[in-house]
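thought: fold this chain, then report.
action: predict
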Amino acid sequence: MTVPLPKQEASSKERLRLWLRMLRVTRQVEAELRERLRLEYDSTLPRFDVMAALQRDPDGLKMNELSRRLRVSNGNVTGIVERLVDDGAVERIALEGDRRATLVRLTAAGRRAFAEMATAHEGWINALLDGVSEDDAHHIGELLHRLPADTGETT
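observation:
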């Protein structure tokens, strides 16, 4: 005979199972996105993330602000930005009065390349989550907004 768990312990176990499901789905979707970006655009997910952050701020961002928003080290962002500059997708702009600070922003070519990748990315997400109805997606999103996660961004 199985003895039921106390309510608090049952809730804890259910939340743990939820976390593991969310983690599994996130990892599967992320792996698929990485592969598709690599194959179809010879790009990476971190590169896509940098371009997305710069797309949201067309006037550009200081390097330290970019790394803060992406929650990665300045060193990680610097390497990605270097490659994007080499490819002509991003430009660096020196800031008057602050020799140490550099502003980075997408070039016209970078905006076009990102727009194409972002359209494909949205389509991939839509296909990968095809089994979730629009109403369910909205409901799940509402439930996840209840979580005390500080992302630093507004959606």
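thought: worth noting. The mean pLDDT is 90.
final: tokens above.
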